[in-house]
Structure formats: structure tokens, C-alpha cells
Design a protein that fits this description.
The complex is a heterodimer.
Chain A lengths: L2 H21 L1 H19 L8 H29 L3 H7 L4 H31 L7 H26 L8 H25 L4 H25 L7
Helix pairs in contact in A: 1-5, 2-3, 2-5, 3-5, 3-6, 3-7, 5-6, 6-7, 6-8, 7-8
Chain B lengths: L22 H19 L14 H28 L2 H33 L7 H21 L4 H27 L20 H38 L3
Classes of the chains: A mainly alpha, B mainly alpha.
Chain lengths: 227, 238
Amino acid sequence: MAPNTLTAAFLIARKDLAIEFRTRTAFFSAAVFALLGIVIFYFAWDPTAVSAIDLAPGVLWAIFTFSGLLGLQRSFGIEQADRAIDTLLGAPIPRESIYLGKAMANLVFVAAVQVVAIPAVQLFYGVPLLEHAWALASIALLAAVGLVAVGTLFSAMAVNTKLAEMLLPVLSLPFFVPIVIPAAQATARLLAGRPADEIVGWLKLLIAFDIVFVAACMLAFPFTIEE
Amino acid sequence: MTTLSPAPSAEDAIPAKRAGIDLLFLVAVLAIAVALVRVIYFTPFEAIQGPAQKIFYLHLPAALDAFMAFGVVALAGIGYLWLGDLRLDRAAESSAEVGVVFTTVVLVTGPIWARPVWGTWWTWDARLTLTLFLWFIYVSYLVLRGAIDDRALRARYSAVLGILGSLLIPFIHLSVYLFRTLHPRPIVIKPSAPSLPPEMLTTLIISFIAFSLFYLALVRQRYRLATERDLLELEEGR
């Protein structure tokens, strides 16, 4: 990977984040969506049958993928206006750097939503998530990398189809299964105070997913660009 | 990057003789009939499960062929991205559609067998869950195909999804496998010899061959349809 690739990727990520920082529309809608999801899940729950500590991890990671989708949808959507994508494609930079830059911006976005969602789950469900802040942060990071790797690629594809935004969840959600299951399982074990080696196995699965799909999606990205 | 390649030749056009009976299809249907007769009349009952176990001879061959079908989708996808030959894309398209049908067969026969034997129609067992997600992935593959008008773009996107889908399967398998599984340990495909009485194994193999022929016949039919559709689109100047 040429150093040029990374430099260009950082520039693209900075551009996307600057747009987001100045408008804040997507972040606010995703954060509010996450909070709403967390609250609505509460009413589907019988606290006498399932304890909060068993339910909270599932809620957290299900909401994580859904609110992540909101941000991913915009990733290539904003480039559609005035065909801004053509300028990106015309720039003398490797195609991979477009993918990497978009993915980095999405990663920041998803992580920012998590910063809102995790304390909210702690508050509304009364589970001590923040006591395990570092462990939880590493699970969240590993999960976010996988989610963003796949989601960024599918976002690039979905905008060029007739169904546009509707297609992204259909394509992405099956790919989020091996993210949600290990993340929820690891979080549940963390909350239950299980020994670390029960958690490590799930983390390895997340790491393997990240490695395989970051590499595969980066290789596949140049094929998804409409010339 | 791609045109309808190779250039539509006389061979690619639709010769009238194809309108007749599809011999491969006929053979496949006959083979399935033979396999069913053998399953019903010439294969012993399983000692504990009784007649219910006979659905196994539909269930497993359909599952194996579904997996094969999705393997073909991934390989054809790799081939397409490499060579840019639309024939490979048509093969992937055909194989995915037939694979979804076979997976549906697996998902229908599974619960029918599970009800008397496990006492439940559905359970979140590892292999069941995997098959369900397999079905979801390839249904979304078909949805994706339907959502793109541009022929070359449709081929490229489908290839990407077909390849990523095949990479996803081991991960779904691993993550759901760590939940407890109700399925028997592998009985047929395992390093040591299959632990199945010889009569049952023979029936299974016959049934597998019949299903595989059926798969080939369906894919071939579907492939021809795709070719004709592509030619039509080309004539319409799309």
C-alpha cells in the first residue's frame, strides 16, 4: 500500500467528518434512533422472566447494527448529489483510498453513536457496563471495524441500484450476524463476571472476521464503482 | 469492461430444436422417481425413528447440492471478475436461483423431520440457523440482481456479493456452532467410513446422484433463459 493511499484516505475521511461535524444531521438522527431503540426494547421485555443482565447485551448490539446502518446509508449517498463521486473517482488517487477513507469516517461515526448508546443502556437497564469500560471498548471497536468494512462496501453498491437505501439492510444484516453474536456473547460473559478465557474465543472470532472482510472488501471495492 | 461476451453467435441464438424435450431434465426426473421408489420400498426403516427418517434421503442430498450451488456462485463470481465473461455471470445467476430452491427444500423437509424426531418444528440449532442464513444471503443476492438494470454492473455486483457470501458462511457457521447443536455429528461426510448401514448408504448415494442431475438440469434450463434474456436486452439496445 503506497503511503499516498493512506494520505488520500485520511483526507477523504476528514472531508466526510467535516461535513458531518458541520451539519450533524446524521449523527443526531442515528443517536436519537439508538436511544429510541433502547427505550422501545424495554417495553418488549418482561423483567420478571429475563433479568436485565441477560437482555442488555442483546439490545446493545442489535441497536448498534441498526443505528450503524443509518450512518452507512449516508456514506455514499452524500456523493450522489451533484455527482460528487465523479470528482473523487477522477482524483489521481488509488481506488482503495476512497474505500479506506469512507470506512474510517464511518468508523468514527459508529463509535460516536456507541458513546451515546452504551451509557444509555447502562442507565435504562441498570447494568454496570461502564465498570468494564476498557474491555467493552475493545469489543465495540472490533465489532465496529467489521460492521464498517462490510457496510461501506455495500453502501457503495446500494446507491447504484434501483432500490438504493432499501437494499443496504437486506445486503448487510446477514453479514452482521457473526458480529452481533460474538459481541453480545462476549458482553454477556463480561457482565456475568466470567473468566477472561471465555471471552477471548469470541474476540478471536471478531478479529478473524475483521481481517478477512477488511481485506476482501478492499479488494472488491474497485469493482463496485460505476465508471 | 464487458460486453455480451463472446459476441452472440448463431450458436447462442435459440435454435428451434431446443424447443423439444430436454433430455437431461427427463433423465433427472426419472432418476428422482427411481430414488424415491428405492427410498420408500427398498430401504429398511431406521430402528428408532421409523419411517420419519426416510426424509433424510431428500434432506441431505438437497443440502449438499445447495452448498454445491453456492460454491458454483462464488467460483463463477471470481471467474467473472477475472475474465469478464458474461457466460460466467449467467452460470452464477442460474446456480444461485436453483440453490435457493434447494435450500428451501432443506428448510421445508427439516422441520417435517424434526417434528416427530426432535419434538419441535424449529429450533435454533447451529446447522439449522446456518441454512436459514444461507437462504437469506442468496435471496438477497437475487434481490440485488433484480435491482440493477445495467448488465455489466449487475454482473460485477453479483460477483462481489457471491464471493463475500461464500466467505461469510464459515463465520456464521462458527458463531452459531458455539451455541449448542441438536444435529447429529456428521454421519456420512467424515474422515472415517460413513456409519450408515450399506443399504441406506446406497439409497443415499442414488438419491444424491438423482438430486445432482436435477440440479444440473435446472441450472441448464435457467442458463438458457438467461442467455435468451440477455440477447433480447441486447436487441432492445439496453
